[in-house]
Predict the structure.
Amino acid sequence: MAAAVSCQELSALMPSPDLYAVFDVRERGESNQEQIPGATSLPRSQIEFRIAELVPDRNIPIVLYDEDGERAPRARCTLVELGHNYVSLLAGGLPAWKAQGYGTVSGVNVPSKAFGEKVHHERQVADMTPEQLKALQDRGEELVILDVRTPEEYGRFCIPGGQSVPGGELILWADELRRRPTVIVNCAGRTRSIIAAAALRRLGLTNVRALRNGTMGWVLAGLELEQKPGRGGPQAPAESRESAVAAAQRIAEEEKLSFLTVEECQKLGNNERYLIDVRSEKEFAEGHIDGSINVPGGQAVQRSDDFVAVRNAKIVFVSSDGTRATMAAYWYREMGFPQVFILSGGSKAWQASGDKLLSGTPESKPLGLDAVLRETKMIDAADLAERAKGERPLILDVGTSLDYESGHLPGAKWISRGWLDIKLPGLFPDRAKPIIVTCSDGRQSAFAARALVEIGWQNVAVLRGGIRAWQERGHAIETGLTDALIEPNDVVLSPSIRGTKEDMQNYLNWELKLKL
């Protein structure tokens, strides 16, 4: 692939069966405003941290774009340095794409969200308004309310009386839920509850309703959420879990889903497929296949573009015995992914073959970090605290704006690493000025320090261990977005977590208008 591709060439490539990836290297908030359909958001600051999972084969062609013409070329240099052999830039970037009449979309996880609306329309998924649910509760009707969001989201708030059952677990509950008069599934907005209700219906249940617009709809109806429920997610009854195995086999046969044996999967190698483990984080930590990534089932469907950047690549889903993996594979097939497989027998079969499962949560080590650390000047928390009493170095926090808001060194200024070497020279032209770079754990700081040294800064050091080490030594921190050098648009939070009622309504209106 050439060093630059035209908009016409990219447009012709995107519907093809070829293996390729398209990345938007701007900040997440910029991508949220407007993006090329089919692209994956990969901010420049995340390349070393995520590219190994997103594009495991370094010979797969990659196309990068931005809006300003400054970040994509730098991102290309990073990818080439990391060993990717075919990295191109979209000529003219997003402005050229729009000027030539090609369409754009807005929002996060657009393919999955649009798919959810398609399922809602085509399958006529039954739902229930918050007011209707509240009326049933007030009458004392027998209800089961299942919250299909992540346990972390559930732990913040839920529909009163709701139980945490992440969407990927629902097949294990199907037989048990069949015996209940009314089952309500909810998420924060629409997609996950629509898919959850449709999944249970596909498994033969007729007593299921999606809560229209989820927790955001509940708030917009003037109703109170239950804050910090503190209940752990219940385990599906053993009998229901056993029935799920036969249900998954039936779905696989009816839908003609494809399986790979352990041996076939091993022959592919880590760089030839995505190996996605859809079990819970706890199960994954207890034992998982080397090279697999943990994306619990509901999230795999909800955020497909965040994990599968090479759309035409082989995708192999893994669960304990293949049951939950079957439902994930079913939905990915429905979404149009062409090469979707289930690991036959799951992680149990993998272990039975003689290959060990790894325990613990794999440390996501950024590519190239060791080499960067060898070149980086470090300063310990104690030395920095002493030094700060005299001279006033420029302290730059290059972690996420959310981390900076939660806690940063006193006087530190925030800037995204994606903009650091582009914006800083204009803001602080004195290249002799001492700079201390920080982040939560020191990893982003090391890459940032190298970038500053490369463009001529002479006195740059990294706080060893980051803010965590600073706090462990008992030093004070500041909170809040006290001094952001650029717009803090690197993190996009759901309006359900941090948003006004107007934000929630705008988000729901956006989802309702989505089309594939």
Observations:
- The mean pLDDT is 95.
- The first strand starts at residue 4 and ends at 5.
- The CA atoms of residues 441 and 466 lie 4 Å apart.
